[in-house]
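Q: I'm building a small set of examples for a reading group on sequence design. Run inverse folding on the following structure and report the sequence directly after it, with nothing in between.
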């Protein structure tokens, strides 16, 4: 889990990103998502998971209670991914729309300026049954934006879908010096976009699907048609639709709608992306300056997952390679545990920060289990100023009380949280904490004594 060091400055690195979009139709999570997240894939593991859900159970009572606590889908994905070394970096929910971002620990010090935003478009913008939720960040110095949308339904509402998407694109993040959505180096747009297959009748559509001649339907797909006409859509790229339309299915089956409505199948669930430099390149003659060509996106696969039947939509995933030249190669803070840690005594943490680091009295260092779920999932923490015991020009030392250390010990890591940057800016290697042997021996002795007394109790009970 070595972080990128000075030796990697200027070297191109590839990050693997797995993006999921799924209209879950108010259902609870399925028993297993191994294939959805490609956890058994033989290739390199993913660096980041981006999960966009629509129609998460959004009854008002659920919505209000979920604001205070994580919703069942967030808990579900954290339970699956945290033991594999992923932390929930960010999430945003607006009614039925949910966007979750998980990253490997090693990348945390190089992800900064994380912001979220939501845009309501349903019911005149007053209630969030349609719209978009967005997370943006700086990843190794490159700006990335993820936009999960649920656009209006029905064949005749193409113009409304396009209008709503334009409105979502126009939203602005709160904060200084944050680019607009289209000014990000890479923008991912995905969700239940609700575009349908125009003109063709249901019989022709179903026959084409049965014969796997999906290409016959592409030119009448409303999103493909709109991309030819609308300038703002032409910059978005999508992989080939080499999978069955993902809507509308009978529940727990791969049979298209057999209800009275008999909805025509459609590719409602989509993943597109836009690379800013490509757009600039196409609008200018000649090559881009070398220093600007610092990020590229490659689609490795774009598929649906037919085995999931909890809703009338099938989930769609895109696996991407992000090739980038890191513009940051050193973490703002490096930290480590001093000496061997034990739950029997107070312990020390050493850390050092780069000169330009904007430290704050509200910064803290958290002790986390290795499989921690999110930034607030710490075991304990120390304030970097209040708990400081020594300082010199090279490093500072902070102490943690033995009373705060878990008695059973185990494998842990340390993270430095910056209040000004609202993110983890440094992370230690995993390390062992030795258990509190005195307490464990005391517990064992008590257990032994308790066990020894049991036969006496039984005998005295039998006398009556």
């Amino acid at each position: 889990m070595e972080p990128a060091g000075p030796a990697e400055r200027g070297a191109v690195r590839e990050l693997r990103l797995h993006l999921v979009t799924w209209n879950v139709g108010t259902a609870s999570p399925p028993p297993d998502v191994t294939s959805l997240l490609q956890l058994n894939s033989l290739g390199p593991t993913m660096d980041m998971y981006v999960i966009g859900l629509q129609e998460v159970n959004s009854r008002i009572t659920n919505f209000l209670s979920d604001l205070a606590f994580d919703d069942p889908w967030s808990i579900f994905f954290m339970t699956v991914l945290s033991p594999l070394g992923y932390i929930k970096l960010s999430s945003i929910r607006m009614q039925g729309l949910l966007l979750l971002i998980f990253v490997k620990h090693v990348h945390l010090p190089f992800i900064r300026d994380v912001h979220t935003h939501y845009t309501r478009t349903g019911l005149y913008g007053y209630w969030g049954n349609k719209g978009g939720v967005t997370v943006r960040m700086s990843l190794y110095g490159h700006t990335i934006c993820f936009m999960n949308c649920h656009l209006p339904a029905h064949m005749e509402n193409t113009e409304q879908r396009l209008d709503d998407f334009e409105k979502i694109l126009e939203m602005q993040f709160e904060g200084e010096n944050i680019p607009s959505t289209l000014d990000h180096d890479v923008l991912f747009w995905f969700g239940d976009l609700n575009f349908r297959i125009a003109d063709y009748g249901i019989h022709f559509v179903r026959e084409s699907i049965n014969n796997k001649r999906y290409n016959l339907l592409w030119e009448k797909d409303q999103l493909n048609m709109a991309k030819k006409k609308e300038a703002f859509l032409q910059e978005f790229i999508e992989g080939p639709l080499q999978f069955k339309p993902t809507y509308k299915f009978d529940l727990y089956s791969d049979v298209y709608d057999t209800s009275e409505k008999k909805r025509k199948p459609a590719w409602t669930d989509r993943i597109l992306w836009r690379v800013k430099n490509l757009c600039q390149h196409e609008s200018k003659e000649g090559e881009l300056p070398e220093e600007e060509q610092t990020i590229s996106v490659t689609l490795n696969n774009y598929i649906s997952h037919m085995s999931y039947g909890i809703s009338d939509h099938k989930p769609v995933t895109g696996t991407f390679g992000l090739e980038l030249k890191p513009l940051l190669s050193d973490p703002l803070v490096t930290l480590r545990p001093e000496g061997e840690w034990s739950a029997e005594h107070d312990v020390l943490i050493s850390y050092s920060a780069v000169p330009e680091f904007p430290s704050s009295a509200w910064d803290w260092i958290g002790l986390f289990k290795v499989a921690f779920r999110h930034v607030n999932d710490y075991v304990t923490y120390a304030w970097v100023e209040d708990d400081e015991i020594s300082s010199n020009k090279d490093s500072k030392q902070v102490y943690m009380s033995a009373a705060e250390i878990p008695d059973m010990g185990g494998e842990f890591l340390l993270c430095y949280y910056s209040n000004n940057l609202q993110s983890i800016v440094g992370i230690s290697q995993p390390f062992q904490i030795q258990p509190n042997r005195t307490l464990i021996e005391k517990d064992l002795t008590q257990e032994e004594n308790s066990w020894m007394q049991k036969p006496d109790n039984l005998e005295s009970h039998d006398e009556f």
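The two ends are 65 Å apart (CA to CA).
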